[in-house]
Amino acid sequence: MATIIVNGTAHEVDAEEDTPLLWVLREQLGLTGTKYGCGIAACGACTIHVAGQPVRSCQMQLRDLIEGDEITTIEGLSEDRSHPIQQAWIELDVPQCGYCQSGQIMAAAAFLRDFPEPTDEDIKASMTNLCRCGTYNRIKAGIKRAAELS
Amino acid sequence: MTERFNLSRRGFLISAAASTGGLAIGFPLGASAQQLNELASPELNAWVVVQPDDTVIVRVAKIEMGQGTLTGLVQLVAEELDADWDKVTWSYPTPGENVARERVWGSFGTFGSQGIRTSQEMVRTGGAAAKAMLIQAAANRWGVDASEVTASKGVLTGPGGDTLTYGAVAEEAAGLEVPAEVTLKDPSEWTIAGQSLLRLDTADKTDGSRIFSIDYTMDGMLNAAIKIAPVQGATVAGIDAAAVEGMPGVQRVLQVDETTVAVVADTWWRARTAIEALPIEWNIPEDVGSFGMEDLEAMLTEGLTADDAFVGNEAGDVEAAFADAAQVVEADYSYPWQHHVTMEPMNATALVTDDSCTVWTSTQNAESDLAAASETSGLEIPQCEIHRMNLGGGFGRRGASSTDYTTIAVKIAMEMKGTPVKVIWSREEDMLHGTYHPATKARFRGALDEDGNLTGMHMRISGQSIFAGLMPFALEDGMDPLQFQGLQAESTEGAFGYDVPNLLIDHAMRNPPLRPGFWRGVNNNQNSFYLESFVDELAHAAGRDPLEFRRGMMANHPKHLAVLNAVAEGIGWEAGAPEGRAYGICQHMGYGSYVAAAAEVSVDGDRVTIHRIVAATDPGHVVNPQQVEAQIEGSFAMGLSASMMSQITMENGRVQEENFDTYPIISMWEMPEVEKILVPSGGFWGGVGEPTIFVATPAVLNAVFALTGTRVRELPIYKSGLSLG
Lengths: 150, 725
Description:
The structure holds two protein chains of two kinds.
Chain A: E1 2-6, E2 9-13, H1 21-28, E3 47-50, E4 53-56, E5 70-72, H2 84-91, H3 101-114, H4 120-126, H5 136-149
Parallel strand pairs in A: 1-5
Antiparallel strand pairs in A: 1-2, 3-4, 3-5
Helix pairs in contact in A: 2-3, 2-5, 3-5
Chain B: H1 2-19, H2 33-40, E1 43-45, E2 48-50, E3 56-59, H3 69-81, E4 88-91, H4 95-100, H5 120-142, E5 150-152, E6 155-157, E7 163-165, H6 166-174, E8 222-228, E9 235-239, E10 250-255, E11 260-265, H7 268-277, E12 280-283, H8 286-289, H9 293-304, E13 310-315, H10 318-324, E14 327-335, E15 347-353, E16 356-361, H11 366-377, E17 384-388, H12 404-414, E18 421-424, H13 427-432, E19 440-448, E20 454-463, H14 466-470, E21 502-509, H15 524-541, H16 546-551, H17 558-571, E22 582-590, E23 593-604, E24 607-618, H18 625-644, E25 650-651, E26 654-655, E27 674-678, H19 693-708, E28 723-724
Parallel strand pairs in B: 3-4, 8-18, 16-17, 20-21, 24-27, 24-28
Antiparallel strand pairs in B: 1-2, 2-3, 5-6, 6-7, 8-11, 9-12, 10-11, 13-21, 14-19, 15-16, 15-18, 19-20, 22-23, 23-24, 25-26
Helix pairs in contact in B: 3-5, 5-6, 11-12, 15-19, 18-19
């Protein structure tokens, strides 16, 4: 049994230490907002924050956590969809199917913190999550709108 | 009517419960609170339920997979109903209900850009009929004639200024006869439809609470990982189950059928870990097991000159045109296999008992899954049910004549009766076992006269038929009519947009051993790439402007011409491209809609940069402009992925690409800006989910030629030494 801190709460989890955090979150804690897309850190659908940094959770195993690491998932980004990224996503109807959007939002939230006044070039250089529906231009607009809302 | 209906449905449920030993099918199993509320609320007709609190539930037969159909259909119903948009919600009926009610909702199939265009009349009629019943109920209450009652935003107003909400009279309205005839609004009267309203289904996509099929869980549920034979026609020779049976969480190791092996565990990660460690031997048929890209190349090349071919479009005497030509232009093109890569891999949860089979899955055609569940389980259709889950992308992979994800889940669940089993395909299994965009080639000959006019053209398509591979019953005397999408002379689906006096378009069917499928845009993708690139070649060979050359052949195709003109104006064709850049242009018609695109590119060394895209669409009517725009943008993302960077290859009968590292798709930094021009001309209903994808590639590649003289005839463009970025 390992103890992990997710969205401010400590949880005991029963999983092998080489289990990716993605599957710990989804299958042990029922936090299914974090998505499986590729399992090789290529698509970003599983992006979460660990100790404040965006991480592709399919590639981080339970044993990679160090004591005190705080994990934030999409479910914990805000209590009521009030994070500026979430507000902007709703205002601009960014998602299409929505499957990749948890990861996009978590990546965008971390990006916006580091780039509070982002340019298109900043966004293009940093936002590497894949979207098969092709919502990229609205994601870009959404990040800029979120910067205004922040 | 409601009472009758509810009684009959209750009767149905009771009899089903009796026949299944107490396990009812339909709503009670896994019903949400909303569904149970709905069951108890007055249904005005199949499309509209009004609850006492004035909430209007619109039944949606088509499925939402990102394309916005859900919101559009609800807008159409709400428009005719004059509902209060803030009080409108929706629900999905199940295919079992549809069958039980003699398919009152029509087809659930959501593909071919049909979501709105094939059901708009049905749903609008449903909304209008419901409104008429609400008005009649209020008129009865007030003792006035129905003509004296008006309806607006969910409120009924009588002659004396009295008002009643829809919810207040819903019960009485539901008891009235459904009117035999209603008059639908003219689109010019629309106030809900036709507007860029926000989608109804966005909020839960922003906080992780939206439950996709892959997220679904049930008490006692186990998880399965699978391996399917890696070569078409291969079978399982043997597995060493003992090697993994002691691994953590593993409950069962089983051969599902001739081609599939599964490990069932408490969690999917443990099942996946075990199946990766499971020794499996395959029987691989020699002919397929030796098939590679050289074989594909040879097979398709042979078809380019074969004597026998199916004719899709023919006019005049094409050979005579070549004999009289001042100049003959020739070129060969090819289009590779593509994979859908829906972001949510294939998956399904199944629960089988001795007398029921229930599946929860994301599907584009739940009735096909219902049939598959029945056929696989051996149970009757009324004993089976499919619960439609949210799709993480579809693009033609899910349920368009291939329900393998449902079939496999039911087979595994049959081995574990009474236990729900969720089967998730790993990304690798998903990519290795797709229904792939067909691989084809085309050979053109074009005859130009002394004035540079096109007098004759032969387009020979060689290659793979989707119908032959996926649904041979749809072939017509061996011919696949779908092969000629956008190339047929007369078709409301996709008509050829040029007058060519002597024309032959034919298809030599050559089917390599890889299962084809419907991939967003389907055969329009290669047909448009081939034709619009070659027309561009002809223009340059004739020394004519590509826009002017096209216009000269479009006098009888005003709608094709109108969108072409719209993008020419939008990009500023006449003024010409800025220094160091060039424009490309193209048009195509498909799925009932007319589309065109123009691109502005520059090329630095081998790198192509797309500075601007201008896209025009005439779908007849636009139900939600901002959502149509979203589809146009998305079409460029998917279309440019296919032409610029993605392809599926095969060696030794096995697909070589297994994940995004070897099958890249477009990402943020490569995505161009897209200027959208909507030019709905009215009088017809076309689709919007797919058509723009047809024009994504030729617009860009025609611009590349104009700038560099490099004509890209094979995709992806890296085969011509180019890349996007």
